Amino acid sequence: MNKDPEAIINTPEFKALVAKQWSVSAVLSIIMLGVYFGFILVLAFDKGTLGGLITDGLSVGIPIGLFVIVLAWGLTGIYVYWANDKYDSAVNAIRQSLRRN
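Above: the chain sequence. Below: its structure as C-alpha cells.
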C-alpha cells in the first residue's frame, strides 16, 4: 500500500471526494445559517410577528423556534447519513485502489 500522504492527497479520487464533502457541508450549513439568522432577524426587527398568539400562552415564535432546533437535528442527520453511506464507501474505494498499487 502506498503510504505517502502526498500521493494520496494528489489522487483525483481524493480531490473529488474532498470537493464533494465540502459542497455537501456547505449546502447544509447555508440552509441552517439562513433559517437561523432569518429567525433572529425577524425576532430583532419584527417582534410582533413572532409574538402573536396562537392560543393562550403559545406565541408564534415557540413553534418556529422548535422548528429551527428540529431542522438542526435533521440537517445533522442528513449529513451523518450521507457520510456513512456515500463518503465511507468512497473512502473504502480509495483505500482498495491504493492497496492494489
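Helices lie at 5-9, 12-45, 47-51, 61-100.
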